[in-house]
Amino acid sequence: MSASPSTSALPASGAPPSAGVGPKGPQRRKRNTTAIAAIAVVVVVIVAGVVGYLYFEKKLPGQVGSSGCGSSSSISVWQDFSATEYPAYAKAVSEYEQENPGQTITTVNETTPSPSNYVAAALACQAPDILIGASDFAGGLYFDGFLANLSALLPSSTFTPFISSAISDVTQDGAIYGFPLNVNGVAMIYNKELVKTVPTNTDQMISEAENITVNTTGTISTAGLIYAVDSDGGYRYPAWQSGFGGSMFLADGAPDLNTTASVNALTFATNFSTVYRVEPPGITAESTWEGLFAEGKVGMIFDGPWDIQMYVNALGAANVGVAPIPVISQTGLHPRPFWGSIGAYVSLRNASGASPAVFNESVKFAQFLASPEVELELFNSSGDIPSLSAPFAYVQSLNIPFENGFLTQFFNYSQPFPNTPQMTYFWTPFGTEISDYLSGAISASAAMGGIQTSVVQEMQQNHIPPY
To answer: Is the domain of 331 the same as that of 451?
Structure first.
């Protein structure tokens, strides 16, 4: 195929299944947008009338569980790929099974894999052999001894083909606990038919959004922009927080959420619907604003490469643009959304119940998912940007305008996705407090104060540094 401004520009080893085969999972975080229980979970059990505490057996970095507790001969996988990513994954499964006769991959479409789901399964010795998802909750699971230290099992040369920032996103205390499958984050995606001047600061962005918005008898039929801060569990909130000069955590790992910058960011994000009225109110599902944009009813959204092919298919490559999120006019600072990777992680045997043979084969299949061929298929299928240096360079060489927009955002104006256990305690309090704030029950200041208090309490209870 000739290179053109479309993610179908890559040569493919075969036509992938049509988009939509797999589930449309929440976005990178997305990958953690449901209520998330503490990772260092304590399960209360009653034995002979005595209440005790059951902890998952903590393993030293790189130490594989001494025994499995199940009998399955297939490799089980939990994944949350988007509808356009899933065909590439399904093709990879088929190819691996063909190349390795006797091996079977069993996939569970865990559309919102979360630490609470995983821990419950692991404590029953039923965790998946391979978990595919965001690096933050996987980092928490590794911290608590559920996932294998791959760098202790494989030669260091295994990881040198990856770009350094992708490997950093799956590294904790020098241990590599996953294979990065892509690099991702969010940028501003806009409809070129509606957005006449691409904004570079937020004053221009709001002005452009006001010009686009069509409000008929109190109902917005065409929205200037949609941010919907309550639709993704808080994954995109840190972009505005950093733009107002705030941070998620201090250098020692303590949360830094109850600040003027955090309150200003939350207020700014909700003013789109309440003050400027360029965003329809009450949008709490990502699928809603994704669908509206694909229908040509929104000027600007803030999304990642995992959805770009869906928008290109709907609107045409010539009508889809990607640019860095505009500078905050009040501060002069760039919003810095999270930048990270979706990775493939291997459970320790005492979490999954795997036999030594299945465990070893799981490591092999996880590594296969991060091969150049599969990463290029993911790019071809969805627009995902590869984490391996050679495919990454190839994507750059195509000079596709909207992919260039993502690359500019990721490598110039983004912040690393915290893959430490501290991050896992943010999602649930954010969802609870933001819901109360949007309902009018509490102020923005009270919401951020409540999030801070909840995160600190959970970290203290679970002895997470610095507590």
So the answer is: yes
Would residue 36 count as lying in a domain? no
- Round to whole Å and give the CA distance between 129 and 165: 26
Q: Are 344 and 79 in contact (CB under 8 A)?
A: no
Single out the residue of 329, 362, 369 nearest to residue 346, CA to CA: 362
How far apart CA 424 and CA 36 sit, in angstroms, is 7
Alpha-carbon span 453 to 448, nearest angstrom: 9
User: Both tokens of residue 10?
Assistant: 């890559």
Q: Which residue has the tokens 């499964």?
A: 93
> How far apart are the C-alpha atoms of 161 and 241, rounded to whole Å?
34
Does residue 300 contact residue 189 with C-beta atoms inside 8 Å? Answer: yes
- Pair (218, 93) in one structural domain: no
How many DSSP H helices and E strands does the chain contain? 16, 17
For 91-103, what is each residue's pLDDT tens digit?
999 999 999 999 9
For residue 367 the two structure tokens come to 């590594």
Say if CB 253 and CB 464 are below 8 A apart: yes
Q: 191-203 pLDDT, tens per residue?
A: 999 999 999 999 9
- Kindly state the tokens that stand for 25: 């999972």
Nearest to 117 by CA among 19, 12, 36, 202: 36
Which of the 8 DSSP states describes residue 64? P
